[in-house]
């Protein structure tokens, strides 16, 4: 207001201040004044930026939620992969155990369960067709090392019949009487006929 007093002079300045009352007047020739339209433009731009910042903050929160969900999902996927690998390992073990027992039984092992522990699974591989690579070699090694635990594959004499053996009596009921048929079936506990 001091600048206005210099410009108007003491007497005119006093008249203006009396008319204004409590309102103040500033001289804005020093460049600190912003025209109303410029102020409105900047204010609108400021409000636009505030809105954009609010929108971006909302999106950021959404992304944080989505990222958290993805972390959980990724953790679940990793857990599933681990579980899947464990199950594949169990399936491989079961397949190898079955193949070992079957291989031992097919090679006339007397005690397949006992000999199963003698097979080194780390040297076995599953083939694409389900075969077990390396099993035959290990079984042959067991047959040589534990001959007593395998039955020999020698067939008895082709012409000999064991004691009490012989050809079983073959009964042909096509020409048998009803009484003979009932008598024969009675031996097997069948007493009712239709």
TrEMBL record:
Disordered as annotated region, ranges: 154-178
Pfam family, one: Phage_scaffold
Basic and acidic residues: compositionally biased ranges: 169-178
Top-level taxonomic group: Bacteria
Protein name in UniProt: Phage minor structural protein GP20
Organism: Clostridium pasteurianum BC1
């Amino acid at each position: 207001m001091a600048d206005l007093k210099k410009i108007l002079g003491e007497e005119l300045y006093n008249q203006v201040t009396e008319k204004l009352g409590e309102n103040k007047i500033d001289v804005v020739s020093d460049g600190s004044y912003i025209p109303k339209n410029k102020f409105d433009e900047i204010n609108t731009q400021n409000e636009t930026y505030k809105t954009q910042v609010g929108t971006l903050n909302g999106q950021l929160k959404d992304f944080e939620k989505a990222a958290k969900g993805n972390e959980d999902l990724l953790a679940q996927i990793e857990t599933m992969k681990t579980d899947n690998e464990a199950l594949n390992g169990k399936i491989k073990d079961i397949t190898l155990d079955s193949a070992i027992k079957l291989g031992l039984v097919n090679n006339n092992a007397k005690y397949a369960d006992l000999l199963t522990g003698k097979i080194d699974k780390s040297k076995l591989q599953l083939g694409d067709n389900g075969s077990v690579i390396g099993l035959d070699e290990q079984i042959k090694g067991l047959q040589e090392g534990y001959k007593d635990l395998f039955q020999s594959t020698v067939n008895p004499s082709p012409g000999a019949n064991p004691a009490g053996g012989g050809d079983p009596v073959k009964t042909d009921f096509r020409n048998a009487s009803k009484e003979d048929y009932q008598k024969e079936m009675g031996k097997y506990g069948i007493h009712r006929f239709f």
